Amino acid sequence: MILGRVCGTVVCTRKDESLVGLKLLVVEELTLAGAKPTGNHVVAADAVGAGASEKVLVVAGSSARLTERTLKKPVDAAVCAIVDQVVFDSERS
Question: Beta-carbon neighbour count of residue 85 at 10 Å?
Answer without folding.
Answer: 6
